[in-house]
Amino acid sequence: MPQYQAVKGTRDIFPDEAARWKFVEGMVHVLASLYGFSEIRTPVFEYTELFQRGIGSTTDIVGKEMFSFLPDPKGRSLTLRPEMTAGVMRAALQNNLLSSAPVHKLYYIGELFRKERPQAGRQRQFSQFGAELLGVSSPAAVAEVITLMMQVFESLDLHGLKLRINSLGDTDDRIRYREALQGYFSPFRDILDDSSKERLEKNPLRILDSKNPALQELIAGAPRLYDYLNDASLQDFEKVLFYLRERGIAYEIDYRLVRGLDYYCNTAFEVTSSELGAQDAIGGGGRYDGLARELGSSADVPAVGFAVGMERLLMTMEKQGLFAALDSRAPLVYVVVQQQDLFDHGMQIAWQLRHAGIKTEIDLAARSMKAQMREANKINASFALFIGSMEQTTGFYSLKNLITSEQTLLSLEAVLELLQESAAKEPLKL
Ligand code: HAM
Description:
This protein is an alpha+beta fold. It has helices at residues 15-34, 48-55, 60-64, 85-94, 97-100, 139-155, 171-185, 194-202, 216-220, 231-246, 291-294, 310-319, 324-327, 343-355, 369-378, 389-394, 412-425, and strands spanning 38-39, 45-47, 68-69, 78-80, 104-113, 125-134, 161-167, 252-253, 265-273, 281-287, 303-309, 333-337, 360-362, 383-387, 396-401, 407-411.
């Protein structure tokens, strides 16, 4: 066993898998821009207080899962970002983005860090893509964000995903609900675990998030937030659902959906995949009108967004066989050198081909011609271009179509022309 292993909960992504990532990322870039979202990249670490204030100190993420460190004994504690939303809002407030335009539509693809117990679909370093719409959180804005997320899934041909949605109401609704929950859970204080006892005082809504099996029955009997919504909240939620129905987006109202971050209000949603096992949430999001003020803004910044876990998305795509076409993509032409004294000539030809935009491979390990042909087949090259002494003297090259086995003798110009034509039919994909 080698001396050094990757840290538990992290993993390496090798070229075949990286191709899949680039394919999905490409789709995210295209669709986000179709909806008018522009990319933002924020730092991987922030001051710890940003997440404590933003996500909420009674959440599992802040309470148990942050990778925090002190840069020096007198410094302020820093934390590797466990999610993107707080950092995006911090960046918008710090740079006064909303004074230049009332609405900002931002998206991202980035690495996150949570100290969770690693298991299938749950890592300590993972990736998300997501979008944040800042400045407006009307039902139309909420629907826009959900529609973008669902269109990404659809464009990737994913099927069988379930969108669950709920309303968490406005601040007043939640104050009334909080009292109702305290009234419900207080008589059972003795059977609550320590963290739920603490949450009972500070943030009883978080008890609903508990994974403790011993509490599930009690939680199931708790009052529903939905029953505490005022008319405006109900109407707002209804309008979001109306937009989704208009667009043929199937959803299920889940009255128990609260999400694991404190900043949400009104509509919150989650998408699950039955393909994923225990960690079945592929993405989630919602409205977070209170976050800006929580981070010290003197003005309200209504906002809504979502994030999708890349690893879980890729796992689902793999299970649904959606990478078959991608995996068979290959270099177009393999330059086969018949004798090693022609290697430099072969390199020169390979350079000319690449310079003309043709994807080209050549063996750099001085292997036999047989081994080069084996390699060309292994990597699914479409053509082999032979470099022999006859080719070098006449300037005519044997080009073999490795799919039909047809072989022709062509001038280098004709080879370039034919390969360019063929490349145009199957453009270079990264
Ligand atoms: P979240 O539900 O905590 O939301 O994370 C979103 C997605 O990230 C999850 O559905 C899951 O697919 C993935 N994910 C979370 N933790 C892990 C992990 N340890 N390993 C692998 N994948 C994971 C948020 O992060 C919010 N910031 C979403 C949002 C954006 N709300 C508004 N705007």
